[in-house]
């Protein structure tokens, strides 16, 4: 069975996806100065090896040709372009940061820049990628036994088995380390899972859902891989979102879900093991935020060269140039922080507080960048036709998940003072 055939509604895709009417808004095209720059102002992509630059360029070209034309349409409908999944194996981007079991072994910096390039076009698609590769593959790599890695990783790398990561609950978000209410009870060689999860990306169609639950016997958090179609596992798509609308988030009900002992992640013994995964994925969201900011900047910059007022393009006005300069400064600061964090991760030295600082700062600055972009476009800033509105809305979700700004600030504050301010 192909990947596309496995996905719900894949056969019901709209034939006119990506062909939304675009209003002209009175814009005219003007020639930019040949020295005008895109969002990678300090050329951070030049820090990786030539073959990795080629890979990043291939990802960028693929996203522009295949994701960009349909992103606004799917976002508006709240649907996901399942048909694009079949093209991903050729890009070779799953599990980039890992080695072994067929993984590319290119490191955290290349993986982060890949997330940035995808988010630069569509933060929703980048989030789908991050859930599968940054959370799913990472969890099995870091918490699975050798047998489990051999069983699942190759198929995940080929995008034949798609993953989801179920930690957050309806009443437990930031307090997951202490307050999970989903339980696991062992009966012989089987575990029984009961509880609820919320905001779980990819969960409506994933083949492997990693569920974190508290073991009733020792009160420790453990990880379980629930396979698609397991009785008692019921994902319900969350409706009414105004951010990352193409991401298929679900609320999950677990009612007596029976998981064999062989599907319990062998090296996940407590929440400390969960936190190891979250450290790297928190940095991944930080890269997504950078890409979101870059996409908003580039859409706004293009608009300033097209939109004419008072007889000249608005790019010629000082206030507009000031906003573009502020946007570039924020983007560049975030890029360079993330680069250094990725280097630390590749060296095995990245700490929780360093990952938290990057996520806290990048998502906060992204909020400012998309606000500047929205302001530059004026009334057109709320239209999907000009792309900025989508980046503007998506920044709100990036700001909140994988640790809110406040929670990450407290992690950094604890490192700065040696005093924990958590309740």
From TrEMBL:
Required cofactor names: FAD
Region: Disordered, residue numbers: 1-30
Cytoplasm keyword on record: no
Lineage: Bacteria, Bacillati, Actinomycetota, Actinomycetes, Kitasatosporales
Keyword entries, A-Z: FAD, Flavoprotein, Oxidoreductase
Domain Acyl-CoA dehydrogenase/oxidase N-terminal, chain residue ranges per copy: 50-158
Domain Acyl-CoA dehydrogenase/oxidase C-terminal: 275-416
Biased composition (Basic and acidic residues): 8-19
Domain Acyl-CoA oxidase/dehydrogenase middle: 164-256
Descriptive protein name: Acyl-CoA dehydrogenase family protein
Entry keyword annotation includes tRNA-binding: no
Pfam families referenced in this protein's UniProt entry, alphabetically: Acyl-CoA_dh_1, Acyl-CoA_dh_M, Acyl-CoA_dh_N
Entry's family note: Belongs to the acyl-CoA dehydrogenase family.
InterPro entries tied to this protein: ACX4-like, Acyl-CoA_DH_CS, Acyl-CoA_Oxase/DH_mid-dom, Acyl-CoA_Oxase/DH_mid-dom_sf, AcylCo_DH-like_C, AcylCo_DH/oxidase_C, AcylCoA_DH/ox_N, AcylCoA_DH/ox_N_sf
Species assigned in the record: Streptomyces pyxinae
SUPFAM superfamilies: Acyl-CoA dehydrogenase C-terminal domain-like, Acyl-CoA dehydrogenase NM domain-like
């Amino acid at each position: 069975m192909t990947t596309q055939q496995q996905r719900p509604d894949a056969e019901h895709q709209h034939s006119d996806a990506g062909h939304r009417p675009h209003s002209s808004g009175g814009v005219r095209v003007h020639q930019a100065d040949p020295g005008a720059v895109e969002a990678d102002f300090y050329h951070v992509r030049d820090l990786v090896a030539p073959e990795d630059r080629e890979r990043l360029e291939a990802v960028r070209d693929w996203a522009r040709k295949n994701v960009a034309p349909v992103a606004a349409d799917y976002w508006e409908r709240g649907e996901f372009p399942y048909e694009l999944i079949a093209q991903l194996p050729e890009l070779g981007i799953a599990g980039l940061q890992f080695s072994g079991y067929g993984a590319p072994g290119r490191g955290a910096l290349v993986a982060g820049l890949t997330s940035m390039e995808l988010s630069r076009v569509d933060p929703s698609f980048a989030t789908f990628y991050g859930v599968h590769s940054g959370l799913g593959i990472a969890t099995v790599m870091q918490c699975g036994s050798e047998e489990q890695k051999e069983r699942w990783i190759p198929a995940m790398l080929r995008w034949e088995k798609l993953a989801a990561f179920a930690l957050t609950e309806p009443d437990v978000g930031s307090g997951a380390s202490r307050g999970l209410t989903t339980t696991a009870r062992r009966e012989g060689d089987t575990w029984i899972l009961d509880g609820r999860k919320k905001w779980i990306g990819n969960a409506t169609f994933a083949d492997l859902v990693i569920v974190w639950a508290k073991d009733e016997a020792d009160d420790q958090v453990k990880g379980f891989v629930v396979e698609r179609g397991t009785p008692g596992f019921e994902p319900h798509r969350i409706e009414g979102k105004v951010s990352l609308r193409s991401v298929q988030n679900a609320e999950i009900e677990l009612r007596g879900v029976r998981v064999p002992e062989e599907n319990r992640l062998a090296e996940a013994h407590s929440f400390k093991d969960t936190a190891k995964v979250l450290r790297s994925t928190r940095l991944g969201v930080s890269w997504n935020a950078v890409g979101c900011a870059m996409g908003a900047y580039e859409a706004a910059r293009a608009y300033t060269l097209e939109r004419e007022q008072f007889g000249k393009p608005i790019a010629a006005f000082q206030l507009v140039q000031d906003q573009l300069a502020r946007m570039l400064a924020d983007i560049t600061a975030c890029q360079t922080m993330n680069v250094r964090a990725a280097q630390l991760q590749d060296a095995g030295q990245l700490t929780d507080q360093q990952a938290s600082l990057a996520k806290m700062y990048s998502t906060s600055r992204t909020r400012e960048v998309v606000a500047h972009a929205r302001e530059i476009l004026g009334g057109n800033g709320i239209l999907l036709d000009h792309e900025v509105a989508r980046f503007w809305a998506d920044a709100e979700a990036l700001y909140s998940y994988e640790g809110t700004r406040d929670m990450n600030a407290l992690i950094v504050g604890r490192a700065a003072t040696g005093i924990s301010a958590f309740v």
